Each structure stands twice: as C-alpha cells, then as structure tokens.
Amino acid sequence: MALESAWRLKMGAESLEIVVAKAVNALPYNEFSFPRQSRLLTASDYQRVFKQGNKLVGRYSVMIYAPNTMNKARLGLAIAKKKIAKANARNLVKRIIRESFRLAQHNLPNIDIVVLARNGITKLDKTQLRHYFDTQWQKLQNSQNISVSR
C-alpha cells in the first residue's frame, strides 16, 4: 500500500492502474507472439525438413532442422503417441515446447525445426522440461552447421 501511495503521489492525478496499463501496452507483445507464419503447417514443409535436415539429438528429444528462405525460424511438432501415450501429457509437452520456442525464436537463425519426442520425456516435470528445451534452443543457436543469418 505504501508503494501504491508513493506512485500516486509521484504520478499526480494518474492512478496506479492507468500507469500499469500504459506500461503493459508499451511492451512489444507482437514480437513474442507465435503466429501461423512461425509454424510448419503443410506436409511438404515437414517432408523437406526430414529429407534435407540435420539432427540435434538430445536425451529427451530429437530436433531436425533445415535452412529456410523466410525471415524467421519456424517450428513443427511431431510428438508420437508411441512415445507419450496419454493425450494430456502429449499436449503438455507440446505447450511447453511452443512456449519455449516463442520466447527463443528471435535468437534462432532462419531455420525450420521439427521436434520429435524420445522415451523418458514424461519423467520431467514442467520446469525441467522448460529448462531442457531452453538449453536445446541455445545448442541449436550455437550449432556450427547453421550458416543462415538474418
């Protein structure tokens, strides 16, 4: 409450709610969105990545990536029922991968990425899974096989 009073005194007539709303609206929200242009959508996109791509093999996933001609990284998910049997667990893994990619996409080169799950991925909790994929994006960013730049 003391902080709120100090803000109101400092801001004059503007209330704290207005100040917070202005600050939130000033954030570059669209830069961190995950629009359709950032996704692999067609079967031909997936086939091209599978045929031409390089692999980054991790303990819990395989990332297959190939350069693209677009101006951004794109993500595709191929999470098999055989690897994650329960639908709610599959959906959780996909949500966490998408969220992690959404925040890391601006640090990645112009590549198309397909993520495949491996056995044991369901043993990780949410924070471990998020940390794992954050480190995978870092490895992909630092990979020497990628020569495409923005």
Keywords for this structure?
150 residues; Ribosomal Protein S5, domain 2; 2 domains
Note down, in words, how this protein is organized.
A four-stranded mixed beta sheet has the order 1-2-4-3, sandwiched between helices. Helix 4 (87-104) links the parallel strand 3 (74-78) and strand 4. The protein has helices spanning 2-11, 16-26, 43-52, 87-104, 126-142; strands at residues 54-57, 61-67, 74-78, 111-117. The chain has 150 residues and is of the alpha+beta class. The model is unreliable at 19-24 (pLDDT under 50).
Give a summary of the structure in a few sentences.
This protein is α+β, with helices and mostly antiparallel strands.
- Estimate the global geometry from the Cα principal axes: globular
- From the structure provided, what is the oligomeric state, counting identical versus distinct chains? single chain
DSSP helical segment count: 5
- What structural class results from the helix and strand content? alpha+beta
> Main sheet?
4 strands, mixed
- Quickly count the domains: 2
Instruction: Say how many strands there are.
Output: 4
Percentage of residues in helical conformation:
40-55%
CATH class category name of the largest domain: Alpha Beta
Radius of gyration: 20 Å
The fraction of residues assigned to DSSP E strands is 15-25%
Write down the overall mean pLDDT: 83
Architecture of the largest domain in CATH? 2-Layer Sandwich
Helix-strand pattern: HHHEEEHEH
- Sheet with most strands: strand arrangement: 1-2-4-3
CATH topology of the largest domain: Ribosomal Protein S5, domain 2
Q: Could you list the spans in which at least 5 consecutive residues all have pLDDT below 50? A: 19-24
**N-to-C CA distance:** 47 Å
